[in-house]
Design goal:
The protein is mostly helical. The protein is built from 19 helices and no strands. The protein is 82% helix and 0% strand. This is MFS transporter. Keywords: Membrane, Transmembrane, Transmembrane helix, Transport.
Length: 434
């Protein structure tokens, strides 16, 4: 009789991970569909590379980060389940609305709505998962959660590309991916329970008040481990997601592929390479010896370092076969880092700062991959297009420059390990004081 509650508790935990992982998948799909139809949108609205980057990336990121921090502050004080459900309903409805837009300004307003909704997705979701698993198991649980990333990328690439080809309209992809998300948001309200905050730490929601945003920022800055982990995750977004944002367009220009052909090629890699690498990472992190945070950071540093070289070759070569082969090596690293990095960051944050700390992490990551990467690549491409006489060649040079930032991310993972012991003791001390 004493052992019967454990299986029920364990299955309930993993149901939460499954549902929130699907939320993450829909979130990612709604982002990737924009990259899939970037070239058709650019042509229809008569935009330059930097202009389409501003419309599709910068506007979403600006409002994402503007409302993300207040939402995270609310999530550290109130019901996180309700926030996730409401956010998903909003961004899914706005995604579907993108399919009905007829001009630049309508698209811009709907895209802003997507950014506002998506701001309430990941920070409260990861905070919920952190309160369903003890410290040593969070990297494993969040890696399973991160399977939503390759699944969403496949939906936003292969599935969206097929929809565009079938209906002969880029708008159909937004409608098809947006409407189901509204229904799924209602399912979250009905089936997911809000966990006790800080249940696996020395501090719970009943013993300590939520930290302020200023306190969270100070803590992140003073904890060198958390600072370097956040820096590593931010630069990986600049490197990996920044490259993938433009890769669909690059394949269409350089090799003459259609939207459906490029989407199918990338979607296959996203799904199989991304899922395979994420599952393999989860299996590795499930090993007892990998509950040591240092080994997780060393593993991520080595993988990113090795993956930077093929990421350069993808755009250096003029062979579609070689570029595709290199993408099979790069894409796994662009996906598998998510769960372990989230877990490392959450482990170095007190429970009363987790949602806000994750929101700050997402703020810097989204500035990198939705503002800096798209606009910098677009600006370099526009600048070089005239002298090179080709917007395909100019985009190639811009992406080669961006690919080298992977070395920078690897450095931060490696450096973070130096202060793990001291910062881990500090987190425990904060809990004991509270």
């Amino acid at each position: 009789m004493t052992s019967s509650p454990a299986p029920r508790l364990d299955s309930a935990r993993w149901y939460v991970v499954l549902v929130l992982g699907l939320v993450y998948a829909v979130n990612i799909a709604d982002r990737y569909v924009v990259a899939t139809v970037l070239e058709p949108i650019r042509k229809e609205f008569g935009l330059s590379d930097s202009g389409v980057a501003w419309l599709t990336g910068v506007t979403l990121a600006f409002f994402y980060i503007s409302v993300g921090l207040p939402i995270a502050r609310l999530a550290d004080r109130s019901n996180r389940r309700n926030i996730v459900a409401a956010a998903m309903i909003l961004w899914s409805a706005m995604t579907a609305l993108l399919g009905f837009t007829q001009n630049y300004w309508q698209f811009l307003l709907a895209r802003i709505g997507v950014g506002v909704g998506e701001a309430g997705g990941t920070p409260p979701s990861t905070s919920i998962i952190a309160d369903n698993f003890p410290r040593g198991r969070r990297a494993y649980a969040l890696t399973v959660y991160a399977l939503g990333l390759p699944l969403g990328a496949w939906m936003g690439s292969s599935l969206a590309g097929a929809i565009v080809e079938y209906f002969h309209s880029w708008r159909a992809a937004f409608i098809a991916l947006g409407i189901p998300g509204v229904v799924f948001g209602v399912l979250i309200l009905l089936t997911v329970r809000e966990p006790v905050r800080g249940r696996f730490e020395l501090v719970t929601e009943d013993s300590a008040p939520s930290a302020t945003f200023t306190e969270t920022c100070r803590y992140l800055w003073s904890s060198r481990s958390a600072w370097h982990i956040n820096a590593a995750g931010t630069i990986i977004c600049l490197w990996g997601w920044g490259l993938l944002w433009w890769t669909q367009t690059y394949l269409e220009r350089e090799y003459g592929l259609s939207t459906a052909q490029a989407g199918a090629r990338l979607g296959t890699i996203y799904f199989w390479a991304g899922s395979g690498a994420t599952i393999a990472t989860g299996m590795i992190l499930a090993m007892p010896q990998m509950q040591d945070a240092k080994r997780v950071a060393w593993m991520l540093s080595g993988l990113v370092l090795l993956s930077t070289i093929p990421s350069f070759i993808v755009y250096y070569t003029h062979s579609l076969t070689l570029a595709t082969a290199m993408l099979w090596l790069v894409v796994p690293t662009a996906y598998l880092y998510v769960g372990p990095t989230m877990a490392l960051l959450l482990n170095f944050l007190p429970p009363t700062m987790r949602a806000q700390g994750m929101a700050i992490s997402l703020l810097t990551a989204n500035v990198a991959n939705l503002i800096i990467a798209p606009t910098a690549v677009g600006w370099i491409s526009d600048t070089l297009a005239g002298p090179l006489g080709s917007n395909a060649e100019s985009l190639r040079y811009a992406l080669m420059a961006l690919s080298l930032t992977g070395f920078w991310a690897a450095y931060h993972y490696w450096t973070a390990v130096r202060t793990f012991a001291a910062d881990d003791a500090r987190v425990q001390m904060v809990g004991a004081t509270a």
